C-alpha cells in the first residue's frame, strides 16, 4: 500500500518540529542560567540578565515549533484515521501534548515570564532572593513542558514508525 503524500509530509513535519522543540527545551533546561539559581557565587543580576538574553529568541523558536508540531500532528492524525488507526492515535497524542505545552505556557509560565522580563521590575519588586526563587520556579515549570515535549516526540516517532512499517 502506497503512503499518502499529505499524511507522510504531515508525519515528517510533526516529527521534525517535535524533535526541534524538545532539543531546544532540553538545552534550556540543562543550560544556564536556570540551574544555577542555588549557586550563591553567581550574582543574581548576572543570572537574570542571562535568562533575559536567552528568553526572547528561545520563546520565538519554541512557539513556532510547538504550533507547527501541533498542527502537523493534528493533520496527520485526522488524515490517517481511516487507514492507519495506530499512527492516527499516536499523532493524536502528539497533538494533544503540543496543545498542553501551549496551554501550560500561557496559563502557568507566562505570569512568571512577565515578572522576570521587565528590567528593573523583578529586581525592585522581588529582591535578590525573590528573583532566584522566580528563576527556580521557571526552571521547574519548564521541566514540566520538557516532559510534555518528550511525550509528544515519542508519540510522533511511534506514529511515523507505525506509518512507515504498515504493510
UniProtKB/TrEMBL annotation:
InterPro entries: Anthrone_oxy
Listed transmembrane segments: 61-80, 87-106, 144-164
Pfam families for the chain: Anthrone_oxy (PF08592)
Keyword Transmembrane helix: yes
Keyword vocabulary terms for this entry: Membrane, Transmembrane, Transmembrane helix
Descriptive protein name: Uncharacterized protein
